[in-house]
Design brief:
Elements: E1 4-11, E2 16-18, E3 24-26, H1 32-35, E4 45-55, H2 62-75, E5 81-85, H3 91-101, E6 102-103, E7 109-112, H4 125-136, E8 146-150, E9 153-156, E10 161-162, E11 171-172, E12 180-182, E13 186-188, E14 202-203, E15 211-215, H5 222-229, E16 236-241, H6 251-262, E17 266-271, H7 284-292, E18 295-296, H8 302-315, H9 320-327
Parallel strand pairs: 1-4, 1-5, 5-7, 7-8, 15-16, 16-17, 17-18
Antiparallel strand pairs: 2-3, 6-14, 8-9, 9-12, 10-11, 12-13
Helix pairs in contact: 2-3, 3-8, 5-6, 8-9
The structure holds aspartic acid.
Residues 11-13, 56-58, 87-89, 113, 115 line the site of aspartic acid.
Protein backbone atom coordinates (compact mmCIF):
# COMPACT_ATOMS: atom_id res chain seq x y z
CA UNK A 1 0.00 0.00 0.00
CA UNK A 2 1.19 3.54 -0.77
CA UNK A 3 2.24 5.78 2.10
CA UNK A 4 -0.10 8.61 2.96
CA UNK A 5 0.65 12.16 4.05
CA UNK A 6 -1.92 14.67 5.27
CA UNK A 7 -1.39 18.40 4.64
CA UNK A 8 -3.05 20.59 7.26
CA UNK A 9 -3.49 24.14 6.00
CA UNK A 10 -3.72 26.89 8.62
CA UNK A 11 -2.96 30.01 6.56
CA UNK A 12 0.04 32.31 6.14
CA UNK A 13 1.90 33.59 3.13
CA UNK A 14 2.54 30.16 1.64
CA UNK A 15 -1.15 29.71 0.80
CA UNK A 16 -1.56 33.01 -1.01
CA UNK A 17 -2.02 33.60 -4.73
CA UNK A 18 -2.35 36.88 -6.59
CA UNK A 19 -5.73 37.70 -8.09
CA UNK A 20 -6.08 39.57 -11.42
CA UNK A 21 -5.54 42.92 -9.63
CA UNK A 22 -2.34 41.70 -8.02
CA UNK A 23 -3.91 41.42 -4.53
CA UNK A 24 -2.91 38.44 -2.38
CA UNK A 25 -5.67 36.07 -1.31
CA UNK A 26 -5.72 32.54 0.17
CA UNK A 27 -6.15 29.76 -2.37
CA UNK A 28 -8.34 26.68 -1.78
CA UNK A 29 -6.04 23.84 -0.83
CA UNK A 30 -8.05 21.43 -2.96
CA UNK A 31 -6.39 23.19 -5.95
CA UNK A 32 -2.87 22.44 -4.76
CA UNK A 33 -2.10 20.20 -7.72
CA UNK A 34 -2.81 23.13 -10.10
CA UNK A 35 -0.34 25.29 -8.20
CA UNK A 36 2.31 22.62 -7.62
CA UNK A 37 1.84 20.09 -10.46
CA UNK A 38 5.10 18.35 -9.40
CA UNK A 39 3.12 16.82 -6.53
CA UNK A 40 1.48 14.43 -9.03
CA UNK A 41 4.87 12.70 -9.28
CA UNK A 42 5.08 11.89 -5.55
CA UNK A 43 5.14 8.18 -4.77
CA UNK A 44 2.78 8.62 -1.82
CA UNK A 45 -0.85 9.71 -1.50
CA UNK A 46 -1.42 13.30 -0.42
CA UNK A 47 -4.67 14.41 1.20
CA UNK A 48 -5.48 17.87 2.44
CA UNK A 49 -7.39 19.31 5.35
CA UNK A 50 -8.11 23.00 5.74
CA UNK A 51 -8.92 24.59 9.09
CA UNK A 52 -12.30 26.39 9.11
CA UNK A 53 -10.63 29.69 9.73
CA UNK A 54 -7.52 30.44 7.64
CA UNK A 55 -5.40 33.04 9.43
CA UNK A 56 -2.34 35.19 9.25
CA UNK A 57 -0.27 33.53 11.95
CA UNK A 58 0.02 36.77 13.92
CA UNK A 59 -3.54 35.94 15.01
CA UNK A 60 -2.46 32.55 16.37
CA UNK A 61 -3.89 31.52 19.75
CA UNK A 62 -3.89 28.35 21.89
CA UNK A 63 -7.41 27.61 20.54
CA UNK A 64 -5.90 27.32 17.05
CA UNK A 65 -3.17 25.03 18.37
CA UNK A 66 -5.95 22.79 19.68
CA UNK A 67 -7.73 22.90 16.28
CA UNK A 68 -4.51 21.85 14.50
CA UNK A 69 -3.81 19.11 17.05
CA UNK A 70 -7.38 17.76 16.83
CA UNK A 71 -7.19 17.61 13.05
CA UNK A 72 -4.00 15.50 13.32
CA UNK A 73 -5.38 13.43 16.21
CA UNK A 74 -8.53 12.53 14.23
CA UNK A 75 -6.45 11.28 11.31
CA UNK A 76 -3.47 9.98 13.27
CA UNK A 77 -3.99 6.29 12.44
CA UNK A 78 -4.82 6.98 8.77
CA UNK A 79 -1.55 8.68 7.75
CA UNK A 80 2.18 8.03 7.92
CA UNK A 81 3.11 11.66 8.40
CA UNK A 82 1.70 15.19 8.60
CA UNK A 83 2.71 18.52 7.04
CA UNK A 84 1.31 21.70 8.57
CA UNK A 85 1.31 24.78 6.32
CA UNK A 86 1.63 27.79 8.59
CA UNK A 87 2.54 31.48 8.48
CA UNK A 88 6.16 32.09 9.36
CA UNK A 89 5.60 34.78 11.99
CA UNK A 90 4.55 32.45 14.80
CA UNK A 91 5.49 29.09 13.29
CA UNK A 92 8.15 28.43 15.95
CA UNK A 93 5.54 28.99 18.70
CA UNK A 94 3.08 26.56 17.07
CA UNK A 95 5.82 23.98 16.47
CA UNK A 96 6.80 24.24 20.15
CA UNK A 97 3.19 24.07 21.35
CA UNK A 98 2.44 20.98 19.23
CA UNK A 99 5.59 19.28 20.51
CA UNK A 100 4.29 19.56 24.08
CA UNK A 101 0.71 18.60 23.14
CA UNK A 102 1.71 15.33 21.43
CA UNK A 103 3.15 13.01 24.06
CA UNK A 104 4.58 9.67 22.82
CA UNK A 105 4.50 10.80 19.18
CA UNK A 106 5.48 8.08 16.71
CA UNK A 107 4.98 9.90 13.39
CA UNK A 108 6.52 13.04 11.88
CA UNK A 109 4.64 16.33 12.08
CA UNK A 110 6.48 18.88 9.93
CA UNK A 111 5.58 22.57 9.83
CA UNK A 112 6.56 24.67 6.86
CA UNK A 113 5.65 27.92 5.13
CA UNK A 114 7.28 30.45 2.86
CA UNK A 115 8.53 33.99 2.64
CA UNK A 116 6.92 34.55 -0.77
CA UNK A 117 3.40 33.34 -1.62
CA UNK A 118 3.19 30.04 -3.46
CA UNK A 119 1.45 31.81 -6.34
CA UNK A 120 4.47 34.04 -7.06
CA UNK A 121 7.16 33.15 -9.56
CA UNK A 122 10.12 33.18 -7.15
CA UNK A 123 8.25 31.60 -4.26
CA UNK A 124 10.21 29.45 -1.83
CA UNK A 125 6.91 27.73 -0.96
CA UNK A 126 7.01 24.96 -3.56
CA UNK A 127 10.47 23.79 -2.52
CA UNK A 128 9.63 23.95 1.19
CA UNK A 129 6.37 22.06 0.68
CA UNK A 130 7.88 19.32 -1.49
CA UNK A 131 10.81 18.76 0.90
CA UNK A 132 8.49 18.69 3.94
CA UNK A 133 6.28 16.10 2.20
CA UNK A 134 9.29 13.98 1.25
CA UNK A 135 10.54 14.08 4.84
CA UNK A 136 7.10 13.29 6.29
CA UNK A 137 6.90 10.17 4.11
CA UNK A 138 10.57 9.21 4.28
CA UNK A 139 11.51 5.59 4.90
CA UNK A 140 15.26 6.18 5.00
CA UNK A 141 14.95 8.11 8.25
CA UNK A 142 11.92 8.00 10.46
CA UNK A 143 11.50 11.19 12.46
CA UNK A 144 8.95 10.78 15.26
CA UNK A 145 8.81 14.39 16.36
CA UNK A 146 7.42 17.84 15.61
CA UNK A 147 9.83 19.56 13.21
CA UNK A 148 10.07 22.73 11.19
CA UNK A 149 11.41 22.65 7.63
CA UNK A 150 12.64 25.82 6.01
CA UNK A 151 15.14 26.57 3.21
CA UNK A 152 16.91 23.21 3.17
CA UNK A 153 17.01 22.61 6.92
CA UNK A 154 14.89 20.39 9.12
CA UNK A 155 14.92 21.72 12.66
CA UNK A 156 13.47 20.34 15.86
CA UNK A 157 10.30 22.42 16.16
CA UNK A 158 10.78 23.49 19.76
CA UNK A 159 14.39 24.59 19.10
CA UNK A 160 13.65 26.81 16.11
CA UNK A 161 13.24 30.54 15.94
CA UNK A 162 12.39 33.01 13.16
CA UNK A 163 15.45 35.12 12.47
CA UNK A 164 14.71 37.03 9.26
CA UNK A 165 11.78 38.94 7.82
CA UNK A 166 13.64 39.15 4.50
CA UNK A 167 15.79 36.12 3.73
CA UNK A 168 14.60 32.78 2.45
CA UNK A 169 16.58 31.09 5.23
CA UNK A 170 14.26 32.65 7.79
CA UNK A 171 14.68 30.17 10.64
CA UNK A 172 17.52 28.89 12.74
CA UNK A 173 18.14 26.64 15.71
CA UNK A 174 20.97 28.15 17.74
CA UNK A 175 21.29 25.62 20.52
CA UNK A 176 20.63 22.35 18.71
CA UNK A 177 21.90 21.14 15.32
CA UNK A 178 19.50 20.70 12.43
CA UNK A 179 18.09 17.16 12.16
CA UNK A 180 18.52 16.94 8.40
CA UNK A 181 19.73 18.99 5.45
CA UNK A 182 18.36 18.96 1.92
CA UNK A 183 20.96 18.97 -0.86
CA UNK A 184 21.05 16.68 -3.87
CA UNK A 185 20.23 14.07 -1.23
CA UNK A 186 18.84 14.48 2.25
CA UNK A 187 21.52 14.05 4.88
CA UNK A 188 20.13 12.95 8.24
CA UNK A 189 21.46 12.99 11.79
CA UNK A 190 19.39 10.12 13.20
CA UNK A 191 21.31 10.06 16.49
CA UNK A 192 19.68 13.43 17.25
CA UNK A 193 16.09 12.34 16.59
CA UNK A 194 13.69 11.85 19.48
CA UNK A 195 13.18 8.15 20.15
CA UNK A 196 9.78 6.46 20.06
CA UNK A 197 8.90 4.96 23.41
CA UNK A 198 6.15 2.56 22.29
CA UNK A 199 3.60 4.18 24.62
CA UNK A 200 0.16 5.15 23.28
CA UNK A 201 -0.23 8.68 21.93
CA UNK A 202 -1.65 11.26 24.34
CA UNK A 203 -2.82 14.64 23.08
CA UNK A 204 -2.89 17.31 25.79
CA UNK A 205 -5.10 20.30 25.02
CA UNK A 206 -5.08 22.65 27.98
CA UNK A 207 -3.12 25.88 27.93
CA UNK A 208 -3.08 28.55 30.62
CA UNK A 209 -2.73 31.96 28.94
CA UNK A 210 -2.18 33.78 32.23
CA UNK A 211 1.53 34.26 31.75
CA UNK A 212 3.73 37.22 30.85
CA UNK A 213 7.12 37.84 29.27
CA UNK A 214 9.17 40.59 30.91
CA UNK A 215 12.16 41.69 28.86
CA UNK A 216 14.75 43.45 30.98
CA UNK A 217 16.72 46.46 29.77
CA UNK A 218 19.14 48.82 31.51
CA UNK A 219 17.04 51.42 33.30
CA UNK A 220 13.83 49.37 33.60
CA UNK A 221 11.70 50.92 36.32
CA UNK A 222 10.07 49.34 39.39
CA UNK A 223 6.70 50.59 38.03
CA UNK A 224 7.02 48.51 34.86
CA UNK A 225 8.24 45.39 36.68
CA UNK A 226 5.50 45.68 39.30
CA UNK A 227 2.80 46.34 36.70
CA UNK A 228 3.66 43.02 35.04
CA UNK A 229 3.99 41.06 38.26
CA UNK A 230 0.62 42.37 39.50
CA UNK A 231 -1.30 41.65 36.27
CA UNK A 232 -4.66 40.22 37.31
CA UNK A 233 -4.77 36.42 37.28
CA UNK A 234 -1.06 36.00 36.49
CA UNK A 235 0.26 32.49 37.14
CA UNK A 236 3.71 32.59 35.56
CA UNK A 237 6.25 35.03 34.19
CA UNK A 238 9.25 34.53 31.95
CA UNK A 239 11.99 37.08 32.57
CA UNK A 240 14.28 37.63 29.61
CA UNK A 241 17.58 38.40 31.29
CA UNK A 242 21.08 39.41 30.16
CA UNK A 243 23.86 37.03 29.09
CA UNK A 244 23.95 33.81 31.06
CA UNK A 245 20.84 34.77 33.04
CA UNK A 246 21.83 37.95 34.83
CA UNK A 247 19.53 40.68 36.14
CA UNK A 248 19.83 43.80 38.31
CA UNK A 249 20.92 42.98 41.86
CA UNK A 250 19.13 46.07 43.26
CA UNK A 251 16.92 45.23 46.21
CA UNK A 252 13.70 46.61 44.64
CA UNK A 253 14.02 44.10 41.79
CA UNK A 254 14.84 41.08 43.94
CA UNK A 255 12.09 42.01 46.44
CA UNK A 256 9.50 42.36 43.66
CA UNK A 257 10.39 38.90 42.34
CA UNK A 258 10.44 37.39 45.83
CA UNK A 259 7.02 38.86 46.61
CA UNK A 260 5.59 37.48 43.33
CA UNK A 261 7.01 34.01 44.02
CA UNK A 262 5.50 34.25 47.51
CA UNK A 263 2.09 34.80 45.86
CA UNK A 264 2.56 31.52 43.95
CA UNK A 265 3.70 33.00 40.64
CA UNK A 266 6.23 30.83 38.81
CA UNK A 267 9.21 32.80 37.49
CA UNK A 268 11.39 31.36 34.71
CA UNK A 269 14.72 32.91 33.73
CA UNK A 270 15.48 32.83 29.97
CA UNK A 271 18.40 34.62 28.31
CA UNK A 272 17.97 37.38 25.74
CA UNK A 273 20.94 35.92 23.86
CA UNK A 274 20.03 33.84 20.84
CA UNK A 275 22.69 31.20 21.58
CA UNK A 276 23.87 29.78 24.89
CA UNK A 277 22.18 29.08 28.18
CA UNK A 278 21.14 30.49 31.51
CA UNK A 279 23.55 29.33 34.21
CA UNK A 280 22.08 30.45 37.51
CA UNK A 281 24.71 31.21 40.10
CA UNK A 282 27.55 31.74 37.62
CA UNK A 283 27.64 35.47 38.42
CA UNK A 284 26.65 37.28 41.58
CA UNK A 285 23.89 38.88 39.46
CA UNK A 286 21.99 35.60 39.33
CA UNK A 287 22.90 34.01 42.71
CA UNK A 288 20.19 35.88 44.56
CA UNK A 289 17.61 35.00 41.91
CA UNK A 290 18.38 31.32 42.39
CA UNK A 291 18.12 31.69 46.16
CA UNK A 292 14.62 33.23 46.03
CA UNK A 293 13.28 30.45 43.79
CA UNK A 294 13.55 31.74 40.22
CA UNK A 295 13.88 28.78 37.86
CA UNK A 296 16.72 28.65 35.30
CA UNK A 297 15.49 28.02 31.73
CA UNK A 298 18.80 26.55 30.52
CA UNK A 299 19.07 26.96 26.70
CA UNK A 300 15.35 27.05 25.90
CA UNK A 301 14.07 29.41 23.20
CA UNK A 302 11.55 32.05 24.19
CA UNK A 303 8.99 30.37 21.92
CA UNK A 304 9.42 27.03 23.69
CA UNK A 305 9.47 28.70 27.13
CA UNK A 306 6.15 30.50 26.49
CA UNK A 307 4.36 27.42 25.17
CA UNK A 308 5.89 25.07 27.76
CA UNK A 309 4.79 27.30 30.63
CA UNK A 310 1.26 27.65 29.18
CA UNK A 311 1.12 23.88 28.61
CA UNK A 312 2.38 22.91 32.08
CA UNK A 313 0.17 25.40 33.93
CA UNK A 314 -2.81 24.31 31.82
CA UNK A 315 -2.15 20.58 32.29
CA UNK A 316 -1.19 20.62 35.99
CA UNK A 317 -3.05 23.66 37.38
CA UNK A 318 -3.05 22.31 40.92
CA UNK A 319 0.48 20.98 41.03
CA UNK A 320 2.91 23.87 40.84
CA UNK A 321 5.72 21.73 42.25
CA UNK A 322 5.37 19.51 39.20
CA UNK A 323 5.28 22.57 36.90
CA UNK A 324 8.48 23.93 38.51
CA UNK A 325 10.21 20.57 38.24
CA UNK A 326 9.16 20.01 34.61
CA UNK A 327 10.38 23.47 33.57
CA UNK A 328 13.87 22.27 34.46
CA UNK A 329 13.56 18.96 32.55
CA UNK A 330 13.60 18.21 28.86
CA UNK A 331 10.08 17.01 28.01
CA UNK A 332 10.42 16.87 24.21
CA UNK A 333 14.07 17.70 23.61
CA UNK A 334 13.54 21.44 24.11
CA UNK A 335 16.52 21.90 26.43
CA UNK A 336 19.98 20.38 26.39
CA UNK A 337 20.60 17.82 29.06
CA UNK A 338 23.44 15.87 27.49
CA UNK A 339 25.99 17.98 25.61
CA UNK A 340 27.85 14.98 24.19
CA UNK A 341 24.96 14.15 21.82
CA UNK A 342 25.17 17.48 20.01
CA UNK A 343 27.47 16.78 17.11
N1 LIG B 1 2.24 37.26 8.37
C1 LIG B 1 2.44 35.97 7.72
C2 LIG B 1 2.05 34.89 8.71
O1 LIG B 1 2.81 34.59 9.59
C3 LIG B 1 3.86 35.86 7.29
C4 LIG B 1 4.22 34.55 6.61
O2 LIG B 1 3.44 33.66 6.43
O3 LIG B 1 5.38 34.44 6.23
O4 LIG B 1 0.97 34.37 8.60
Amino acid sequence: MKDKVLIVYTGGTIGMVQDSNGALKPFPLSHIYDLVPELKRCSYTIDTCQLDNIIDSSNMTPDFWVNIAECIEREYDNYDGFVVLHGTDTMAYTASALSFMFKNLSKPIILTGSQLPMGMLRSDGRENLICALELASCHEAFIPEVCLFFENHLYRGNRSTKISAENFDAFYSYNFPSLAKAGINFSFKPHLFMQQNGQPLEVRKNFDRNIAVLKLFPGITPQVVNAVLHAEGLHGVIIETFGSGNAPTESWFINAMKEAIGRGIIVLNVTQCKAGAVVMGQYEASCEMERIGIIGGNDITLEAAVTKMMYLLGTYPDDHDHVRHSLQCSLRGEITVNQSRLS
